[in-house]
Amino acid sequence: MPLASRTAIAGLGITPQGKVYDHNHIGFASEAVRLALADAGLTRGDLDGLLVNPGLTWGDMGMASFQLQQAMGLRNLRLSASMNSGGATAGTMIQYAAQSIANGLCSTVACVFSDAPLKPPKPKGDPGSGSGSGAAYAFGRGLDAAYGQFGVNAMYAMAARRHMHLYGTTNHHLGAIAVASRQWANRNPAAQFHDTPMTLEEYHRSRWVVEPFHLFDCCLVSNGGLAVIVTSAERARDLRRPPVYVRGMGQGHPGGDPAETLTSGAPLAKESAFAMAGIGLADIDVVELYDCYTFTVLVTLEDYGFCAKGEGGPFVADGRIGPGGSLPVNTGGGQLSSFYMWGMTPVSEAVIQLRGDGGARQVPGATTALVSGNGGILSTHSTLVLSNQEQ
Amino acid sequence: MTYAKPIPAITPEMRPFYDAAKRHELRVQRCTSCGTHRFPARAICSECLCTEAEWVAVSGRGEIFSFNVMHQVYHPGFAAEVPYAVVIVKLAEGAKMVSNLVGGAPHDIRIGMPVRVVFEDISDEVTLPKFAPA
After folding, report:
1. CA terminus-to-terminus distance, chain A
2. Domain boundaries, given as residue ranges, for chain B
3. Which residues of A are catalytic?
4. Three-class SS string for chain A?
């Protein structure tokens, strides 16, 4: 039985994001699910599935979905799992939810991410406040640490440097992505950088984290939770908000060393997602890409075929992906300028756009969104085609 | 002066690498079935799934595959060195290693630059292979 548009996102719950400290990871997750249920007009008794992507502060204990089930007093679930395919997980959770619902295993699934890596500011006078720091992501292991290689930034920078070497990509190009994201964020009241404009010059002046990445090439680190409710298309039509249909889905995990090819799993994931949705690139109105770094956006645009491999730099350089540009990308400000809920950030912005709830950043008449998730160093990839039209 | 940077723990599977480095010799694993070189140690060859491997001496020659320049201090041992470069060297035999380039400023590093291994004794037990322009 075809899977296209058999299910829909019926509820969206976004807790306060960023430097917020009123919950731990389970608290944020519970609050996000509660908000998503209320948004859909459902109660917890309607939930029979729970998929959780545990952020860093969940630790390695596992069984996150059971912990959350207990915290929320959920009974008699027919689907429950903790999932981790890195930054692709938001998309893969929705895919497994949709398949389970379409095949009759369960009817209504909450997919949730939460994390709380930021600590409250220390008393004033202590310059070592951890409040804005990405320290949780700065791990170094064994030999890598011996050579001073710490954290994901450092590993990703290696791939970006190769793209620059092979294709002539520059920090002007990466900066154009950072600026476009910021301009979108300035139109999104929920964005952490809503009130902070940024020019290309300011991008260049921002400190280096690890060359070739400036501070504003790297995504935010956020506390918070984000959940969506997936249910059958039929049921979604009777609920409070207009359905956002899951029209197409796919995954692509290239294996090997993607720094060799500088290609993500997007081409593979796109194949099944676009075939299922029955669409081409020209049918996409808004593009919500996983943006752990500016560079990830550049590569992902290439890999979906918006431009040829290696041409991502010139493609974004002229404001094409910002407000008023011909290809609206990361319309809420993305993870670079809005908030970082791993892949749930792009999913949530697609839902907002397809409901027409985008306010000052709404892309007029948006009906179809391309959503990507990307984990590791271009290692894992998920694609969703979401639409407010069944076909 | 005592060595202030992280000193890697010698794990059983990496012991042959450290023992060789101590003798100023660079060894990596080679699959006994298909001959693919790999680093760091893995239990199985990702090319042919063979579980047999041997530690073999390699030429110590390679080229810069990529590099970054670290500006943040993640460990106090590197505080005096920022900004410093971390490189990935692709050995002539094929395996890749994270390392440092000795001699020359970070901004003189270029992808494709030929390099050769040098050794830095950092403790009684541990010697780190590093690379110099060839």
Report:
1. 16
2. 12-133
3. 290, 340
4. CCCCCCEEEEEEEECCCECCCCCCHHHHHHHHHHHHHHHHCCCHHHCCEEEEEECHHHCCCCCHHHHHHHHHCCCCCCEEEECCECECHHHHHHHHHHHHHHCCCCCEEEEEEEECCCCCCCCCCCCCCCCCCCHHHCCCCHHHHHCCCCHHHHHHHHHHHHHHHHHCCCHHHHHHHHHHHHHHHCCCCCCCCCCCCCCHHHHHHCCEEEECEEHHHECCCCEEEEEEEEEEHHHHHCCCCCCEEEEEEEECCCCCCHHHHCCCCHHHHHHHHHHHHCCCHHHCCEEECCCCEHHHHHHHHHHHCCCCCCCHHHHHHCCCCCCCCCCCECCCCHHHHCCCECEHHHHHHHHHHHCCCCHHHCCCCCCEEEEEEEECCCCEEEEEEEECCCC
Residue of A nearest to B77 (CA): A148
Centroid of chain to Cα A19: 18
Pick from B81, B86, B100: CB nearest A154: B86
| Residue B114 contacts A, CB cutoff 8 Å | no
Distance from CA of A55 to the nearest CA of B (A): 21
Residue A43 and residue A20: Cα distance in Å, rounded?
26
CA A175 to chain centre: 20
**Contact call for residues A326 and A335 (beta carbons, < 8 A):** no
**Shortest CA gap A256–chain B (Å):** 9
What pTM value is reported for the model?
0.96
Verify cis geometry, omega within 30 degrees of 0, for the bond prior to A364.
Answer: no
pLDDT string in tens for chain B (134-residue length):
689 999 999 999 999 999 999 999 999 999 999 999 999 999 999 999 999 999 999 999 999 999 999 999 999 999 999 999 999 999 999 999 999 999 888 999 999 999 999 999 999 999 999 999 99
CB A65 within 8 A of CB A50: yes
- Nearest CA to A356 out of A267, A270, A226, A242 is that of A242
Domains of chain A: 7-119+221-237 (3.40.47.10)
Nearest to A143 among B8, B65, B70 (CB): B8
